[in-house]
Specification:
- This protein is an alpha+beta fold and about 375 residues long.
- It folds into two domains: about 10-120, PAS domain (Beta-Lactamase); about 120-360, Histidine kinase-like ATPase, C-terminal domain (Heat Shock Protein 90, 2-Layer Sandwich).
- It has ten helices and twelve strands.
- Strand 3 and strand 4 form a beta hairpin.
- Helix 5 (about 120-165) runs antiparallel to helix 6 (about 170-200) and helix 5 (about 120-165) runs parallel beside helix 7.
Length: about 375
């Protein structure tokens, strides 16, 4: 069934009554067949109409190729497809918009019809929430590692003291020492368990991808390690990137939890005085993330099963940190949801490096997580 021209009277009135920024683009004529007043207003155009090249000039220079590639792919699809990109107007702050369109048949040929909306406020709100989520995860990770040593020492000393004095103390003293031992153990496990549980729960939610500057997201997550780590961590945590901006289509909340989990593992198995380096670089149409440590490495006998659920390769950290054996299994699953791959290189006594390669564009329908 052919679609009627959206610029015809009744359809035009109905579209404009919605207050949405609708448009129709004639593919053969390479010109707009219809632009609603709201669509023109989105590009600060008050009268007349706008040509495609004029509108493209308002797209952020770094996003123009991205938009043109999307437009070319859209002409071969029959389902609504969305894209998020930046627009820049003179003397105004950078804005984010979401453009949704699909290809339909018309009496005169093919039309791309769709609408556009300003998502700047929504992105700022989401970025604000995720920034503090990353900060919380980093701080908890640091505190869990920093507290593991002294609380573990308290636990061991209280247990040792209880054994030494068990024949020379009353029941109340023995009870107090047992209480100290139990509370210190609970304290050292509490923050780690909180992070593990949150990671497990979030892994069962649907994957929601969007285009983000991964360098910015990584720096937000790493800044707490660099600031608090100076005073609390007995080792160095560093971040390096090959560029100031590397845009990728990811579920940034899930992906940054992957990075936090890998850093957490590195902290567990890197002795005091060592270092952890997180790096990011573009490799063709993909990005490569590395999390490298100078720790004790992974024994060769454990490497084959490292990514399995409840893997026999799980082991306590250098300061007694516990593990449920699910972390790296979920990390691998989330990376694969992003059409990526993860692998590692490790030498006992010299350290471990985890590699994650994901495409910059998340093509196809997002994979739905399974419980």
């Amino acid at each position: 069934m052919e679609t009627q021209n959206p610029s015809s009277g009744l359809y035009q009135v109905l579209l404009e009554q919605t207050g949405q920024a609708f448009f129709a683009y004639d593919v053969a004529a390479e010109a707009f067949a219809y632009q609603s007043p709201e669509f023109l207003a989105s590009f600060k155009i008050s009268t007349g109409s706008a040509q495609p090249q004029t509108l493209l000039s308002f797209v952020h220079p770094e996003d123009q190729e991205f938009v043109q590639d999307w437009f070319a792919q859209l002409q071969n699809q029959r389902v609504p497809t969305s894209i998020e990109f930046r627009v820049q107007f003179p003397d105004l702050e950078e804005q984010w918009v979401c453009l949704t369109a699909s290809l339909v048949d018309n009496d005169s040929g093919k039309l791309l019809v769709g609408h556009m909306e300003d998502i700047s406020a929504a992105r700022r709100y989401n970025d604000h929430l995720k920034r503090f989520s990353n900060k919380k995860n980093s701080v908890l990770n640091i505190l869990a590692h920093d507290l593991a040593g002294p609380l573990g020492m308290i636990q061991n000393l209280s247990g040792l003291l209880a054994d030494q004095l068990k024949d020379h103390q009353d029941e109340d003293t023995q009870h107090v020492l047992n209480l100290i031992e139990r509370i210190s153990k609970q304290g050292s496990d509490m923050l780690r368990e909180f992070m593990n549980q949150e990671f497990l729960e979030s892994s069962h939610t649907n994957l929601v991808t969007r285009r983000v500057n991964l360098v910015e997201k990584m720096r937000e997550a790493m800044i707490e390690y660099e600031i608090l780590g100076v005073e609390l961590l007995p080792l160095a945590v560093n971040f390096v990137s090959s560029a100031d901006e590397i845009f990728v289509e990811i579920d940034d909340l899930k992906f940054m939890q992957v990075i936090t989990n890998l850093i957490s593992n590195a902290l567990k198995f890197t002795p005091d005085g060592g270092s952890i380096t997180v790096s990011l670089e573009e490799v063709g149409d993909a990005v490569l993330v590395k999390v490298a440590d100078t720790g004790i490495g992974i024994p060769e006998r454990l490497q084959e099963n490292l990514f399995e659920k409840f893997t026999p390769a799980r082991r306590p950290g250098l300061k007694g940190e516990t593990t449920v054996g699910l972390g790296l299994s979920i990390v691998k699953t989330i990376v694969e949801w992003h059409r990526g791959e993860i692998w590692f290189e490790s030498t006992e006594g010299k350290g471990t490096t985890f590699f994650i390669r994901i495409p910059k564009k998340h093509t196809g329908k997002p994979t739905q997580p399974r419980a």
